[in-house]
């Protein structure tokens, strides 16, 4: 009886925190709940034994804030999740270990009123300095070893279906410039707070951009002569010089066995290069393809 009363109180608290979510969502946007980032239990144990648990927590905290900021920057979602959701989620036993499944995703969706649910789990974290000694010379050299890996999952909480699951990694190569920047301080072979934020911001942008593209593929919204405008701007993973392939959209396709929709047929019609990035959109010049094929509504995808 006491448990039922407590559960009812929690539902009331959530309703007060997120009133009429669907009603206040902006037209064309979908509501999104971002669960607090967690590390897998085995990784938590390993980092604790290695004396790196504090570093892992600092990265986790930075990712919490940066993920919300980067998803907001895509301008595609009405964010209904906040870090203070963690307490409510923990009380209900959801997401504490990152093991969210279709059932719990649907339950969390009901609690928050969000159509989509983003679950990010850190499954690998390394941050230390290795020393190598060269035989015969007595000389030695040190090497910074930094690596972080995150599995991000996007659920449709109205059905519990997993929309997308992808692994995002970063390490020494990508952050070599940051590590060598004298403005970033390394103390006791630990990343500084500034570097932690830089790492978290880069990974969060990758996650937010990828997931936004899954739900809302980037599209052409205007076309004039040899120039097109796409609905992706600053903060949405677009930078000057980026190359995008352009695809015309055809009929919807269905799996013959499951009858599940596989999306609409896409036919490549050309390529464009980003020449201007504004807060809400970007402009690009046509590099390949017939100009008449670049119609409004055509999908654009960044080249690999």
Structural descriptors:
alpha+beta, Thrombin, subunit H, six-stranded antiparallel β-sheet, 32% helix, 12 strands, 304 residues, Rossmann fold, 2 domains
Written account of the structure:
With 304 residues, the protein is α+β, with helices and mostly antiparallel strands. The chain folds into 2 domains: 2-215, ABC-type transport auxiliary lipoprotein component (Rossmann fold); 220-302, Beta Barrel (Thrombin, subunit H), CATH 2.40.10. It has helices at 2-17, 21-24, 41-49, 53-73, 85-91, 102-112, 176-180, 193-215; strands at residues 30-34, 38-39, 77-79, 116-133, 140-156, 161-171, 220-224, 227-230, 243-254, 261-277, 282-288, 299-302. Strands 1, 2, 3, 4, 5 and 6 form a 6-stranded mixed beta sheet that branches. Strands 7-8-11-10-9-12 form a 6-stranded antiparallel beta sheet, with no helix packed on it. A hairpin with a 6-residue loop joins strand 9 and strand 10. Helix 4 packs across helix 8. The chain is globular, with a radius of gyration of 22 Å.
């Amino acid at each position: 009886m006491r448990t039922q009363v407590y559960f009812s109180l929690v539902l009331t608290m959530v309703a007060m925190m997120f009133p009429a979510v669907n009603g206040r969502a902006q037209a064309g946007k979908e509501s999104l709940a971002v669960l607090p980032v967690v590390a897998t239990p085995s990784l938590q144990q390993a980092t604790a034994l290695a004396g790196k648990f504090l570093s892992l927590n600092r990265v986790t905290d930075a990712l919490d804030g940066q993920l919300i900021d980067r998803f907001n920057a895509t301008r595609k979602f009405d964010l209904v999740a906040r870090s203070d959701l963690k307490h409510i989620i923990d009380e209900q036993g959801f997401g504490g270990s990152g093991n969210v499944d279709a059932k719990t995703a649907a339950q969390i969706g009901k609690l928050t009123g969000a159509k989509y649910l983003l679950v990010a789990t850190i499954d690998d974290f390394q941050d230390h300095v290795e020393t190598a000694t060269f035989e015969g010379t007595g000389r030695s050299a040190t090497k910074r070893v930094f690596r972080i890996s995150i599995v991000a999952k996007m659920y449709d909480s109205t059905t519990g279906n997993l929309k997308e699951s992808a692994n995002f990694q970063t390490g020494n190569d990508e952050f070599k410039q940051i590590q060598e920047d004298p403005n970033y301080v390394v103390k006791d072979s630990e990343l500084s707070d500034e570097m932690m934020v830089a790492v978290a911001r880069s990974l969060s942008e990758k996650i937010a951009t990828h997931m936004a593209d899954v739900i809302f593929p980037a599209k052409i919204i205007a076309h004039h002569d040899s120039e097109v405008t796409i609905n992706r701007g600053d903060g949405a993973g677009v930078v000057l010089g980026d190359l995008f392939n352009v695809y015309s959209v055809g009929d919807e396709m269905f799996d013959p066995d499951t009858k599940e929709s596989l999306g609409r047929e896409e036919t490549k019609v050309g390529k464009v290069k980003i020449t201007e990035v504004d807060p809400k959109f970007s402009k690009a010049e046509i590099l390949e393809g017939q100009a008449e094929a670049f119609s409004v509504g055509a999908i654009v995808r960044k080249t690999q």
